Please model this.
Amino acid sequence: MKNTTIAGAWAPSLCWNSKALCFPIWKDYFNDKDVFKLYSPTVVIAEMNEEDSNGAFASNGIAIDTYADSIKYFTINHWKIKLLWINQQRSQQ
Model:
């Protein structure tokens, strides 16, 4: 995972001890503006309803699923999580 950037509120905890650069995103607090242009994340980890980031993407008019090449859905305890592999050409538009 070297040279990979992973964004999202779950990113640091789910990717602990990886070689990826991981950072959280929280609306109106941390990394919630211009995420794709500033950081070019390869993967975004988000809850299905974006509750983990308090709707950081949706509040900035970003339909996060439209940026993904593929999406993997899974459950951790009672949280519904998705991993989105980001289309790099789409994210730079």
